[in-house]
Description:
Two copies of one chain form a homodimer.
Chain A: E1 7-13, H1 21-34, E2 38-44, H2 48-52, E3 56-58, H3 64-71, H4 87-99, E4 102-109, H5 111-127, E5 132-137, H6 153-173, E6 177-182, H7 189-192, E7 207-209, H8 217-231, E8 234-239, H9 250-259, H10 278-294, E9 302-306, H11 310-313, H12 320-338, E10 344-352, E11 358-364, H13 366-369, H14 392-400
Parallel strand pairs in A: 1-2, 1-4, 4-5, 5-10, 6-8, 6-9, 7-8
Antiparallel strand pairs in A: 2-3, 10-11
Helix pairs in contact in A: 1-3, 1-12, 4-5, 6-14, 8-10, 9-10
Amino acid sequence: MGKTTRRNAIVGQSGGPTAVINQSLVGVIEAASEFDQIDRLFGARYGVRGIIEENFIELNGLDAGLLKRIADTPCSALGSTRDKPDEEYCRKIFNAFAKNDVRYFFYIGGNDSADTARIVSEMADEAGYELRVFHIPKTIDNDLRVTDHCPGYGSAARFVAHAVMGDGLDNASLPGIKIDVIMGRHAGWLTAASMLARHDETDAPHLIYVPEAPISEGQFVDDIAEVYGRLGRCLVVVSEGIVDENGKGWNEQLLRMTHGAEVERDGHGNIQLSGSGMLGDCIANFARAEVSARFSEKKLRVRADTFGYLQRSFPDSVSPVDRTEAHLAGRKAVEYAAAGQPSGSVAFRRTGNGNDYGIECFRAKLQDVARNIKPLPPEYINEAGNGIAEQFRTYVAPLVGELPIIGKL
Amino acid sequence: MGKTTRRNAIVGQSGGPTAVINQSLVGVIEAASEFDQIDRLFGARYGVRGIIEENFIELNGLDAGLLKRIADTPCSALGSTRDKPDEEYCRKIFNAFAKNDVRYFFYIGGNDSADTARIVSEMADEAGYELRVFHIPKTIDNDLRVTDHCPGYGSAARFVAHAVMGDGLDNASLPGIKIDVIMGRHAGWLTAASMLARHDETDAPHLIYVPEAPISEGQFVDDIAEVYGRLGRCLVVVSEGIVDENGKGWNEQLLRMTHGAEVERDGHGNIQLSGSGMLGDCIANFARAEVSARFSEKKLRVRADTFGYLQRSFPDSVSPVDRTEAHLAGRKAVEYAAAGQPSGSVAFRRTGNGNDYGIECFRAKLQDVARNIKPLPPEYINEAGNGIAEQFRTYVAPLVGELPIIGKL
């Protein structure tokens, strides 16, 4: 048997952190040390930015205890970036690879990261430079195509389910109308996970709105008034990407009314939703005015909480399955690389549910994962468009792990 | 030995819920079943309101499994109230007691509840009606006098410490300025607990502001600019009760600037802070404008999260010590009652710290606990007034339980 050619590798983390993104990183680090094909493993600080700036940490020979601690620590140990590389940026990445004899690139991130991986991989092909690029899925939004679900989602879903359960009990203790705003600008997967908090008709959440089910302001008020009239309280879970019957984001209308020009927008002109309580406050003010008018209560108790960054970083409510699978996804990427497989994205196929829950991994094509997202399918949304169908529980429950059973008098 | 006279008892829950308030309730229920002195035990729905409306649940003979589940469920299983009884209201309470031959009243709540207990107890004395009233401490604010600490605080502090740890890692992944707003209008105990997230100079939180340490807007900006200049990021933990150098609430000034008349106020004219992200958003906008001006960064990344009701209701991050002590506080109230002790409030005395941590219970006088609060003492605040002194760790750590050790590259 001939001596294996040893080549250098780079790993990076991109986009919003998750509670388990370091599991994937450590999966890569551990597996890389086991395969002869990989010589030096560089960690790029702050994602692709660290590559073009050649800001690397050498990841070989790290202590096993330290690696274990890093794996169990939420958020990106290497640092992350919001940079979305264009062709020119990707060329700089590719040049840095060539300069450092990097032949394997492992990139942990969402669909934008998969697209970066795709472009860099294509550039290498065109240049005749041998490079294997592996995308390792990561997103609390769970909106990557091909894979059954995404590492990072289960833990965020666990946080949301517990938070809505607790907040629903709070709302039952001191009744009123409560709005909880959940992350997910384009897809309702994370918002939908709040349904796990509910075990009977009176449990929160009473209403769930996802971007995939447009809702008019009038219907929204009707729905809340119906629940409030029946139970004397109402907990509403709203995705930050909630849209009206014309597909227009609620945030645009509500925020323009109350905040005018001072709203922060990102490079694409989208309103900055995360890291702000504005949308929740606007919805609460709107609901207070409109629902009060239907009841003779002058001071309707309406509150809003925006779960914010806690959803993706809270260290004390991590899903055991998510932890294991995120680690596995990192390992698999290295295994595919070492086995000489073509560039691709690690994906999960579900092999069973309930007590038989399990997954197997496979390699998806980068172009099938890049750019476009996977919305919550219609069969998971109830007919009224204001709740989540019971069958979603089968999908999401194993990813989240056990939830407490509510005790009631 | 003569036959013990068996009398009826009422238990109620009041004010903002906590993650362990039902532990105290179940402590009362269990102990009441063990002592001959107590015949029927009524649970008042929605606190004192349930007493004057005679809206009771009979709590005798409940299944042990159900009681265990209720104890482990956050928030008030009986329902809570924000009613602050005046003398007339207390008379109605007293009349309901007399009508139902209630001779023991157990009230789980904060300093307002202790005051209600005091007034009702005094009315009974004046009327020559034999009544023992026991206040069982409960508040995430930890601001009750006499007792070393309050049931409910440890779990809320655990949530805050984990949340700030996770959010600090998030802030290190995608650097910028982050503001986290913590509950506690008058006392900084809960905000101070965020210091547990910090293990070295670079860890979050970098700045902590409590109501006990007034801070001018100028100093606030200076502090953030100093940290941001040094680390390229800054996580700031702010109590919702933050005040300026004249003792005036920041919320008053900032919110008036941006929201004018539309701010919701409570019965005392105070701005409604909980269940809204306004204060955090205002501070973030202010910090963005002021700190940007000091650096040549046009688009400084500034975000705010308001932890909201999750701090008091999250089911997946409960402090084991808090759970045990809340249960004990409920039991002790019944023991004091059964032993014929005078009306009072259950209080904790700390007997040791670290590995020797322990408490013993004693009965405090209602008038010593009622109404006034206990602020965070000056020795727990750093000299600059922008952080928490290291010695606070000794006080708070045992109440919160173990925190993860951050793994860093």
